[in-house]
Amino acid sequence: MTRLLSIMAALVLAVLLLSSSMFVVDQHRYAVVYALGELHEVVREPGLHFKLPPPFQNVVYLDKRLQTLDTPDDDRFLTQEKKDLLVDAFVKWRIEDPRQYLVAVGGADRGGDRIAQVVHTALSAEIGKYNVHEVVSDQREQIGQAVLARVAADARRLGVTVADLRLKRVDYVDPVNQSVLERMKSERLRQANELRATGTAEAEQIRADAERQRVVILADAQRQAATIQGEGEAKASQIYAESFGKNPEFYRFYRSLEAYRATFSKRSDVLVLDSNSEFFKYFKNPGNGK
Fold it and tell me: Distance between CA atoms of 49 and 35, rounded to whole angstroms?
């Protein structure tokens, strides 16, 4: 009985030793084997692998997949004019060289912190080159690309590859926000004044053009009226000439009547002439020219 127990204990011990000497690496992870606290081997291939049992050797796993790092929402950065901006970014990164990564960051779970430090340093350097307006609107894409290039170069020294970096949020803190609002207000007022001035100038131009057209139209109308009147008078004269040419004596009689009517239009009109004057010809002998 004692012998059986000894055999069973030996078998259990052997199984424990064997299980502690085996480790499995899946396709999403690296396995780093430490021997007495020193980095001994990096296993990249998935499958079943063997090592010495603890405490001689132990295994640390690292994720080889693409990872996402979000920077803190309240990170503040100074612009060129020394104004604070709130900038939030995200980074896509993965471990490329496990050995270099562990040596550089000092632990399997410290990579995110080191990447965050690198991103913060790069953002501070790049945002400090621009003013508030450029960071918020004009140069935002350019700044993101410059930060990505800087972070990728620094991350390679950590054994890390950076796949992408984007600026999610670029916002003002309260004092800067107020100054930006004031600047926007003054800018809108300036644009409104420019529009009013432009509108006034265009209105004056339209009025001047309308007045010029009015003068031209009136002058043209008067010219046409004078032409029509002259043509009418000429035609009337022609008609008179043709009509009175058929009976000259009647024409003279008619002209004398017109002269009498024009001369004695009022009761108070007085005309002193010789009684033998030609003017009284038809008064003296009205039936002479019948």
Answer: 15
Contact 33, 41 (CB under 8 A): yes
Peptide bond into 53 cis (omega under 30): no
Single-letter amino acid, residue 26: D
Nearest CA to 80 among 134, 42, 117? Answer: 134
- Check residue 73 and report its DSSP letter: T
Q: Label residue 279 by pLDDT band (50, 70, 90).
A: low
* Cβ contact 49:29 at 8 Å: no
Q: How far apart are CA 90 and CA 71, in angstroms?
A: 6
Q: pLDDT for 65-120, tens place per residue?
A: 999 998 877 788 888 888 888 888 999 999 999 999 998 988 888 888 999 999 99
Q: Which domains does the chain have, with CATH numbers?
A: 20-62 (no CATH), 67-172 (3.30.479.30), 247-284 (no CATH)
pLDDT at 160: 94
Q: Which of 86, 73, 39 is nearest to 59 (CA)?
A: 39
The whole model's pTM is what? 0.55
Helix (H), strand (E) at residue 93: strand 84-95
- Give me the half-sphere count of Cα atoms (radius 13 Å) on the Cβ side of residue 134: 15
pLDDT at 133 over 60: yes
Q: Answer whether 109's CB lies under 8 Å from 63's CB.
A: no
At a CB cut-off of 8 Å and minimum separation 6, what does 130 contact? 79, 80, 139, 143
pLDDT at 182 over 90: no
User: Has residue 282 got a pLDDT over 70?
Assistant: no
C-alpha 37/C-alpha 145 separation (Å) is 40
